Amino acid sequence: MIGVIKAFYESDEKNVILAEVQVKQEQKNENGISCLVETNRLKTMPISVLSKYTVTSVIEDKPEKDSTVPQISIPVNLFIDDTSTNVSKRWQPLHCAQIQLAGVPLQYRNNETYSSFLGASEHASVMSISKLILQDIKSTQQIPIETFDANTKTCITFRMEVASLIADFNMLSLACNHAGATT
């Protein structure tokens, strides 16, 4: 089976990281060349049974640079919340946003090393902060970020996608009411 990882999950019963994979099907086109076709099937499986599969491009009108640079998709979890900056008993909200890789194991999720602070404001609403962050994440879909992978000593490009939005009930309600259920 060939597919693309769309999201990561952690199984509570087995303490195993699972990957949700969108299945690709191999077919031959009218010229007899094998190609991968996207299907609507999603399959969830332990990440330990997955392996890397490299697809070689046969499209000739793409520049050579695009076909040789690996493209990586990075699913992330976005955290939004408000906290109080009060000194007295009066509520003064400070709206905060953080990000974390979606596949971080449960025992490391509360460690500050694995979370990145994105922004906070006493004056801007949490929705305006989130909107800016989501615009930046969506921009990587059109224009991937080029960087250097020190492990493989090669140039790579990556795109980000939001795997989940994590918030308490009040923040989640606010996000759904202002952004819509399908956003």
Summarize the structure.
With 183 residues, this protein is α+β, with helices and mostly antiparallel strands. Helix content is 18%, strand content 46%.
Explained architecture:
By secondary structure, the chain is α+β, with helices and mostly antiparallel strands. The chain folds into two domains: 2-58, no CATH class; 71-179, no CATH class. It contains three helices and eight strands, in the order βββαβββαββα. The protein has a five-stranded mixed beta sheet. Strands 1-2-3 form a three-stranded antiparallel beta sheet, with no helix packed on it. The longest helix has 17 residues, at 126-142. The chain is elongated. The two termini are 30 Å apart. 8% of the residues are buried. The model is unreliable at 59-66 (pLDDT under 50).
How would the blueprint of this fold be written?
Layout (H helix, E strand, L loop, with lengths): L1 E10 L4 E13 L5 E13 L17 H5 L2 E14 L8 E9 L13 E7 L4 H17 L2 E5 L4 E13 L2 H11 L4
Parallel strand pairs: 4-8
Antiparallel strand pairs: 1-2, 2-3, 4-5, 5-6, 7-8
Order of helices and strands: EEEHEEEHEEH
Shape, please? Answer: elongated
User: Got a strand count?
Assistant: 8
Terminal residue distance: 30 Å
The major beta sheet can be summarized as: 5 strands, mixed
The overall number of domains is 2
Strand order of the largest sheet: 6-5-4-8-7
The radius of gyration is 20 Å
Number of helices: 3
Helicity range: 10-25%
What would you call the structural class?
A: alpha+beta
Mean pLDDT metric:
78
Please indicate the percent range of residues in DSSP E strands (runs of 2 or more).
Answer: over 45%
